[in-house]
Amino acid sequence: MADDAMLKFVARGQQYPDKREAELRAEDFREIAERYAVPDAEAQAGRCSQCGVPYCSVHCPLHNHIPDWLRLTAEGRLREAYELSNATSTMPEICGRICPQDRLCEGNCVIEFSGHGAVTIGSVEKFITDKAWDEGWVEPVRVGPARGQSVGVIGAGPAGLSAAEYLREMGYDVHIYDRHDRAGGLLTYGIPGFKLEKHIVMRRVARLEEAGIVFHTSFEVGREATLDELRARHDTILIATGVYKARGIKAPGVGASGVIEALDYLTASNRKSFGDTVPAFDDGSLNADGKHVVVVGGGDTAMDCVRTAIRQGAASVKCLYRRDRANMPGSQREVANAEEEGVEFVWLSAPEAFDGGDKVTGVRATKMRLGAPDASGRRAPEVDPGGAFQLPADLVIKALGFEAEDLPRLFGAEALGVTRWGTLRTDGKSMMTSIEGVFAAGDIVRGASLVVWAIRDGRDVAAHMHAWMKAKALSEKVAA
């Protein structure tokens, strides 16, 4: 019986794929986890309880059919499992690698609540899609009949790529414009290889190129063309730029050499992994080799920075965060990985100044304590009097999150409406901006968020753009 493969969570313990030893993985940028062998993947999928209300699916932004493809995996029907996983996500193997499953699907697994340890959903998702690529089950994009209408997508990150794939399947001509020389956005240049190896992203991009999607790289809207000029080329536009403006620190000495932005640092490292020439890395400006590094921040970007610094051969790496471990926004799994690799966390601490004049030599910091809850419900950090201390630092990396750039000015489109946070204002039902026929999706609308939400937004906005273009084509036909 099919059910014989399932409900094994009592007799079978939770087992993630083995991680490489910390000392070894800290020497390279390969992903840290090994892949499941087929029997192990099937066995772990068989721990699923097949509960009546699958909270894992409910708490997945894509509402993936998780219990169903777990069952198929447990039964050895791996191709069917992949096809079902792929039905709701354009990038399942990427989500399997970088989603914070501990906060989403696995964190809401029913057997996790029962004390037996969640099903290893992300690792199984990664396994079945990698297996599909290995076996040739990943089919080309099924391009629909040509509609004679074109779409311009600004931004080749997860939201833009996801929307582009769906729109191409519907038969639209799709052009993607991106400021970088490679597509992928933060998947390519922001996330380090030890979490997401770059060939994983590049094969997705290649699949879209093979489907006839045209990529215009090193294309900066506002410089190569204004938004209005792009609107003249296409029937509709999607803005999916993400948010790239780094949040700043107001402290004396913040302008000193050696105090750098997280994204500049991560981009330089990722470019080196591609074999690019990166002068700012080679001259040491964006290279942690031999340096005492302090990273300020507690999100996933901060975790990426501290773990990258370890791999670059830093003399020491400390992470300065103003709240405690329980209240940090980054993944607890990432914190554990970082600690294993030699990162020291300095909790309840915040920088007050950066010493050294022209070149940073240290961070003056103060201890913090948690006060009353703020508007978000989290206890707000406040200065703990008398808790000043100093850390030596040759390199300070600011990883405090990202905000929206001034797109109306950059794009030469003052009619583009924005919120008080600078994100694009869209209609809640149609996802259209204040400019007719111009849509927006991903972090440029919701603010800095998760890759999985960007993929979901790309899927949703493609449906809205399709409806709008069908109506436009009909009205033009009637007018003719």
Automatic annotation (TrEMBL):
<dbReference type="Pfam" id="PF14691">
    <property type="entry name" value="Fer4_20"/>
</dbReference>
<keyword id="KW-0479">Metal-binding</keyword>
<keyword id="KW-0411">Iron-sulfur</keyword>
<protein>
    <submittedName>
        <fullName>Dihydropyrimidine dehydrogenase</fullName>
    </submittedName>
</protein>
<dbReference type="InterPro" id="IPR028261">
    <property type="entry name" value="DPD_II"/>
</dbReference>
<dbReference type="InterPro" id="IPR006006">
    <property type="entry name" value="GltD-like"/>
</dbReference>
<dbReference type="InterPro" id="IPR036188">
    <property type="entry name" value="FAD/NAD-bd_sf"/>
</dbReference>
<feature type="domain" description="Dihydroprymidine dehydrogenase">
    <location>
        <begin position="25"/>
        <end position="136"/>
    </location>
</feature>
<feature type="domain" description="FAD/NAD(P)-binding">
    <location>
        <begin position="151"/>
        <end position="458"/>
    </location>
</feature>
<dbReference type="InterPro" id="IPR009051">
    <property type="entry name" value="Helical_ferredxn"/>
</dbReference>
<dbReference type="GO" id="GO:0051539">
    <property type="term" value="F:4 iron, 4 sulfur cluster binding"/>
</dbReference>
<dbReference type="GO" id="GO:0046872">
    <property type="term" value="F:metal ion binding"/>
</dbReference>
<dbReference type="Pfam" id="PF07992">
    <property type="entry name" value="Pyr_redox_2"/>
</dbReference>
<keyword id="KW-0004">4Fe-4S</keyword>
<dbReference type="GO" id="GO:0016491">
    <property type="term" value="F:oxidoreductase activity"/>
</dbReference>
<keyword id="KW-0560">Oxidoreductase</keyword>
<dbReference type="InterPro" id="IPR023753">
    <property type="entry name" value="FAD/NAD-binding_dom"/>
</dbReference>
<keyword id="KW-0408">Iron</keyword>
